[in-house]
Amino acid sequence: MSLLAAEPKHAQADPPRLKLPKPEPTKSxxxxxxxxxxxxxxxxxxxxxxAFALLAVILLMALIGPYVVPYDPLHSSALEALQPxxxxxxxxxxxxxxxxxxxxxxxxxxxxxxxxxxxxxxxAAGSLIGTLAGYYGGWFDRISGRLIDTIxxxxxxxxxxxxxxxxxxxxxxxxxxxxxxxxPFYARLVRAEVLVRREAGFVQAARLCGNPDWRILxxxxxxxxxxxxxxxxSLNMGWSIMNAAGLSFIGLGVQPPTAExxxxxxxxxxxxxxGEWWVALFPxxxxxLAIFTFNLLGDVLRDLVDPLRRV
Amino acid sequence: xxxxxxxxxxxxxxxxxxxxxAGIIVVTFVLTRALPGDPAILFAGxxxxxxxxxxxxxxxxxxxxxxxxxxxxVKSLAHGDLGRSISTGQGVGEELIRRIPxxxxxxxxxxxxxxxxxxxxxxxxxxRPNSWVDHLCRxxxxxxxxxxxxFTGLAFIALFYVYLGWAPAPMGRLNxxxxxxxxxxxxxxxxAIFAGDxxxxxxxxxxxxxxASTLALFTAAPIARMTRGAMLQILQSDFVRTARAAGLAxxxxxxxxxxxxxxxPVITTFGMVFSFTLGANVLVEKVFSWPGLGSFxxxxxxxSDYAAVQGFVLAMAVIFGLLNLVIDIVYTxxxxxxxxxx
Lengths: 311, 342
Fold this sequence. Notes:
Helix content of chain B: over 70%
Helix content of chain A: 55-70%
Largest interface: A-B, 51 and 61 residues
Distance between the termini of chain B: 6 Å
Largest sheet of chain B: none
Structural class of chain B: mainly alpha
Distance between the termini of chain A: 18 Å
Radius of gyration of chain A: 23 Å
Number of helices of chain B: 13
Shape of chain B: globular
Oligomer: heterodimer
Radius of gyration of chain B: 24 Å
Number of strands of chain A: 0
């Protein structure tokens, strides 16, 4: 809770509307280890427990998935084409007789890798741009602001389509495009957080002590922007996964036969009308669960860092 | 405090759209020309030799310095020329204009659906915190933002068309049994009603229901979340408490006092909602073989027709800009405080 002390805007915020269960936080809360707060918030809602369990499953899929799947995700067998789900093939098989379950599990690594790199890129670039723009203002602020407005002038998914199709149809470009369309949110957030602290007492004190600008920015101002940034990043993960999968769904980025959730759904889409629903719906459901997990985690994180913003 | 007239505010907002438009044009120009990959080679086709490529480069003005190319680009845009599609040889601009009504019809119905579900849901959730409506709202919000529209669309097809047989085949705007209604607005449902053909109107509407619901489900989440948040905040405010204490009817307090004020922040989130909608449009149109702008872009991608894709990106950005303009103008009309110069 001590993080809140540094947040001036909460001073005028409305009274908190906590939805936590009865046991009131004790007064010594401020001195407790942060892990207590985390456990408290996770256990407050059974849905949060589900979210963390799902996260563990997804991470396991990404880490050891390729080594434990029952079948080779690329192994096709004409004899077993389009088999419905069974004990042998949990999610059925696709038109080439490949095991859908194995393909869905193996795809987790690529999907996570794409979205984590996209989020990391926009996190880093957005923090840098936002910090400089907020601290120095002036021409850099104006130019970067204009640039960000221009990105926001496009429907974001459409801009990502345009970038990937212009820069070349590769996985790396899908990551860059996703990072670019996410950039404005990070840059604006950091700029606002830096701007309100630019002339704060602790910053002036640090300046008076002879700290150079970069040191003040890196060690005194920027850490204050981290809590909201972390929330943004985890909410952004779900959206990035959806975005990358959406681009693959329309044929951008990942190319078949690589297993990726969006591509798996796109391949299965051809068999929906003829009744072979499992080829598309299982990968789609797993994709949905992954996005749901990250959105839920973002909410948990927000409740932890910033209970006043719960709505 | 000087008061401002509405026309001057609208005019000022129109002027603010100019730099955004300039930015859009620069970005699409960069996307078409300056990035790796020589457009001349692309246009000349894979079998072209050096001379053909040089000729194409000259024809496209690609041998000129970049600023000149940019001027040419802006000039052709001013004439409504968005370049030619390699696969069909048709002008991209004409093709896009032909397809706008299909996308418009889908988007309008979807927005109507999502607003008419999300706003009442948000209001009810805010007035009864922690009731079942509130929980329903929370579930809708968190599942709505987690459902990739292409997955929801396919799940709807599997359920409502393949298994239940309630929905018509997900193949475009109108079943082949019906003839296209005479063109008035380009929106099939309206055109059929104008032509006095209720059967076709019904068929077109049924064809719309699944894709529009898919899109609506995706966009309802942010609207519901925002409505709930804004209503909660307003209901806690002093003027609502005063109105209640003065004994005003519950309905008057809720709708006249709280709702009208709560709608202001909701209107501003519509910019984001439109961004979502236009992006999701592409995916939904692809899933339902809807012959709109999005499926045009997807087809162009499949045939590596990148000029057509960039035309599409530009068109979407302009549409998005116009929608934002409309939102801001509506906001100016709804929000009296903006008319006072602070």
